[in-house]
Structures are given as C-alpha cells and as structure tokens.
Design goal:
Structural class: mainly alpha
Number of strands: 4
Strand order of the largest sheet: 1-2
Oligomer: single chain
Shape: globular
Order of helices and strands: HHHHHHHEEHHHHHHHEEHHHH
Distance between the termini: 28 Å
Number of helices: 18
Helix content: 55-70%
Strand content: under 5%
Largest sheet: 2 strands, antiparallel
C-alpha cells in the first residue's frame, strides 16, 4: 500500500480504537459513576461549586438548561469583547500587537464564543498573549464544554422513561471541561512541547535562515492552545497559517496526533451514547452512517489531490507528489486531503494546507461536510445535529409504513417535527442567504476587492465563508478578503443564529419527548438500531443536502471543475 495512504488509514483506525474506551469513560462521567480521576478532580469541582454557590443536586427542566447555557454564553461575550478591544494596553503583550477594531472584535468574540473560531486576523500579529490565553483559549475550553453538556442533556432525556428533570447543566458543563477536555489537552500539549512547539511567554525570536536572512519568529503559549483547539473541535490557529505552520505542527508525528484529536471526541461521544443508554447497537448504527458519509468525501478527495492538478499538467509540468500547491512537503497531498475532510466533517476548521488551493472537487467535499454538519460534527453538537435527522427519518418511516412514528418509546408528533424541520432548514437558509447577499453586493461593486478570483472560484470563496460560519467551522478559502465590516458583521450574525438555534431545537425536542408517556417496545415498533433504519437516515441526510445545496455547488466548485477539466 502507498505509504501516504497507509498513514491516513493508520491515523483513522488508531483514533477509532481510542474513541471506544474514551466513549465508555465519558458515559461514566455523565452517569456520575466512579472514574480514575475522581481523587484528583472531585475536590477541585466541589470547591468550584461551593465558591459559585451552584447546587448540582438541583435538577433542571430542559428550559432551565437552556436559560443557564444562554446566560453564561452572554456573559462570556462581554468578557471577550473587553479583552479584544483593549489588548493593546493590557499586560502580556511583548510584541506590541494592537487592540482590535469594534467590528473585528465583534466577529472574533462571537466566533470563539460559538466554537467556530473563524479568524479574520492573523494569530501571531493580531493577538496578545493575554488575548490568546484569557480570551481565546478560555473560550475554546468552555464553548466545547457547553456543546458536550448540551449533548449530555439529550442523552439523559433519551434514557429516562417519563420525566421533566434532566440533570444539572452546570454539573455536565464543569465535568466536560475538567474530566474530559482538560486531561486530554494536557497530554496532547506535552507531546507537542517535546516535538518543538513553543510554550512560553517570550516575545519574537530573531533567527537567521539558511539563505542568510534574519527573520522574526513568534513564540508564546502555543502548545496549550493548539491542544484544546483540536480536541474541542475549535480549530483557531495560534499562528496565522494554523497547523501548516512548522511550530504549530512540526512533523508527521504531530500531524497524526493533531488530526486524530480532531475526530477523537466527536466519535467517542457516539460510543458514549451507546454505553450511557445501554444501546450499543444504536451507537454502531449512528457511527456507521457517519463513517460512510465521511468516507464518501474522503476517498475521492485523496484520489484527486494525489493525482495532481490537470491544468498544470497540460502545461507540461510533472506532479509526482500530487497537487502540492498550498501544501507542506512534510505532510504530502494525501495527509493534507485527509485533514481537509476531517476538519470540515467536524466543526474544527483547523488546516494543515490551504483549502483555497485544493482541487475543485476536494473543495466541494469539504463544503458538503460542513453543509451536512452531522458526520461526526463538533464535540456534542455533532450528535445534536444528527439527532434532528433521526427524528425526521423516524417520522418519514412511520408515514411510509402507516404507523405512528416512535423513537425510544416516545411518539413523534407535529410539535417535534416542526422544530426538527425548522432546525434542518435553518442551516441552508443562513448559508444561501448570506452567499446571495454577498454576491449581489460584489456584482454591484466589484472594485471593493474582496475576491482574487472573480469567476467560479470567487463564488466558491463566498459560499465557503458562509458555510464555514453556519457550520461553526472556521476554515476558509483564503483568497477572500474577509476582514471588512461587511464580512465581520454578516458572518457574525450567521455565527450566532447557527450556533444557538440548532442547540435549542434538539434540547427542546428531547425535553418534550422525555415528558411524554413511555410506550414499551412491541413487535410493531420501528427498530431504530438496525442497518435498514441507518440507510433511511443516510438517505434523509443526503436528500436534504442535495436539494438545498446542489444549485449553489453547481455555480461554484462543479462549474470550476468542468472548466478546469
């Protein structure tokens, strides 16, 4: 087998192998069972709850969960805005980086608050060390913990027969941070430090290159931020070029660690569902559907990137290494394509190559991963998005066989279906409306200079930006000049709506269902843990994606591909 292919197969298989025991551990954490970390972390958590006055024994309804979630997110927004707009004079700024403008601070604060990490600035020149640690890294922990806590609420609703009490949000949130994200981040950060990633508070270093030029190389607390950015499916780069930077991702070994970390917790959350509900067949069905969709994007992307750019080949230039524009030689075309897909089927958004340089079909598959936003997805919220598709699939299956739709012993009725439909349609609405608005503004005033590529690829750049924003992803086709008030404000609005409504919807559905009378399974009950139902969910996902996004993809990457061919 080609060594490049072997590398990505090894990375994926190793990650799944680690995700299974991690999923079992996560299920124990949310169920309140004993774990190995209890002696160390239980006193710390008790101290935190004691100081904050939070009573974790007080169970919440689904509405109280949402109030708690939205309230703390609202407070974090003002904290982020204060630091970003004042970092120029605040301490821990050895390189003298300036404060952000109001529109850029708004976009950055919202972006990191919603676990998207869309960056309209360059990391090493746009942020102080205080901003990186006290603002961005802080948000990368707590927003990932927020998504996982929301997922735990839905797990609990699915487990209970009939109840309106679904645990305590703050307990799920704190445990997600202390028991899962923090230990894994410490381990990954240590590996990165030993491989050469900086972890200090020193300013730029003056280095002499092999050409004899003197360059200023940024340093700082990079390893800690890189660890949580990958594990929390955050993706925001410490350096401007993200994990294509040799200090952020030094070698192929760190590339394996970081790329595996992107999908580790999203996959583990699926297995955690099976252990938590004691329905492992259901978890295997969900994992199977997600993985089939993932492979349908990954395999052709690896093939086309390894085959090279046909337009360059027509110029008589050989491409034995594949399409290497915008890629790092230490990773190669296959590992770059692998990263490009795993970072977009999750809501991670970090890059080890420039997505703007990918071949048209790879760019399309990356966009489709974000458009579906449920093939692994972000930590916690990936399952919430998949849960919406499950509800829709159950309802359609019930109509097809003439039975009342039921899921986990609860009837799916009009109220739940309306919520699921709104959530499913909101995603394409935000993406396509934003892209249409940007296209209209650009066509009316092409001199504004957003696009380096005003043809089909330019449309793809704008489509990708709103897709990334709506999927809480954060990656981009960086041929787009996006640090302008228009892009900062419009993507900021999309970020807010696309983060909280898709969390509110599934929690509301789960809470409503949990409060209904439990109906024991019978011979006529639709089995939702079978491969047949898995195919139904798969069909629903791809039919919705195809109907919503095929016209836009035709105008962008597909048109570019056929022109390129």
């Amino acid at each position: 087998m080609n060594t490049e292919i072997l590398g990505i197969v090894f990375t994926f298989v190793l990650t799944v192998a680690l995700a299974i025991p991690l999923g079992k551990y996560i299920a124990k954490v949310y169920a309140g069972e004993k774990t190995l970390l209890d002696p160390v972390l239980s006193p710390l958590e008790k101290l935190f709850f004691s100081i904050s006055g939070i009573n974790i024994k007080q169970e919440m309804t689904w509405k109280q969960h949402l109030v708690a979630l939205l309230t703390i997110n609202f407070l974090w927004f003002f904290w982020a805005m204060f630091i970003l707009m004042n970092q120029g004079w605040l301490p821990w700024n050895p390189d003298g980086n300036p404060s952000m403008s109001p529109d850029l601070a708004f976009n950055t604060a919202i972006s990191f608050l919603v676990n998207c990490n869309l960056q309209h600035y360059s990391g090493e020149t746009g942020m102080s060390y205080l901003g990186q640690i006290a603002c961005l890294m802080f948000l990368q922990f707590v927003t990932a913990g927020t998504g996982m806590a929301a997922c735990a609420v839905v797990f609990n609703a699915m487990k209970e027969h009939t109840t309106d009490k679904l645990g305590n949000f703050y307990q799920y949130f704190v445990k997600s941070c202390t028991r899962i994200l923090l230990p894994l981040s410490i381990v990954l950060a240590i590996f990165l430090v030993f491989e050469g990633t900086p972890m200090n508070i020193e300013g730029k270093a003056s280095l002499v290159t092999m050409q004899g030029d003197t360059v200023q190389v940024s340093r700082g607390p990079a390893a800690a931020m890189i660890a949580i950015k990958q594990l929390g499916t955050n993706g925001g780069g410490y350096f401007g070029v993200n994990s294509a930077h040799p200090l952020e991702n030094p070698n192929y070994f760190t590339n394996i660690l970081e790329s595996g970390s992107i999908i580790l917790i999203p996959i583990a959350m699926v297995f955690a569902l099976g252990y938590y509900l004691k329905r492992q067949k259901l978890a295997y069905m969900i994992f199977g559907v997600m993985t089939i969709g993932f492979l349908l994007f990954l395999i052709p992307s690896v093939i086309v990137e390894m085959n090279g750019n046909h337009a360059i080949e027509r110029m008589g230039i050989a491409q034995s290494l594949g399409s290497m524009e915008g890629k790092e030689i230490r990773f190669g075309s296959a590992a770059s394509a692998f990263w490009g897909i795993i970072t977009t089927v999750t809501s991670n958004g970090s890059v080890n190559a420039m997505h703007d340089s990918m071949t048209p079909l790879t760019g399309m598959f990356a966009m489709l991963g974000m458009m579906i936003n449920a093939l692994y997805g972000g930590v916690g919220v990936g399952f919430l998005n998949f849960y919406v598709f499950v509800i829709i699939a159950v309802f359609i299956s019930g109509l097809m066989v003439g039975r009342t739709p039921e899921f986990m012993g609860k009837k799916i009725e009009a109220r739940e279906m309306k919520i699921a439909s709104i959530v499913a349609l909101l995603h394409p609405l935000l993406i396509l409306s934003g892209t249409a608005l940007a296209s209209f503004v650009f066509v009316g005033n092409p001199a504004i200079g957003w696009l380096n590529n005003p043809q089909f690829h330019g449309f793809s750049e704008m489509l990708y930006e709103y897709t990334s924003s709506a999927a809480n992803n954060g990656s981009g086709f960086e041929g787009l000049g996006d640090n302008t008030p228009f892009w900062n404000i419009t993507t900021g609005v999309v970020l807010i709506l696309s983060r909280y409504l898709p969390i509110i919807g599934p929690i509301a559905i789960a809470g409503i269902l949990a409060n209904k009378k439990y109906i024991p399974e019978s011979a006529g009950t639709l089995k939702t843990d079978t491969s047949t139902f898995g195919l139904m969910v798969f069909a629903v996902i791809f039919i919705i994606a195809a109907l919503a996004f095929f016209p836009a993809l035709t105008l962008g990457p597909l048109a570019e591909y056929f022109t390129w061919k």
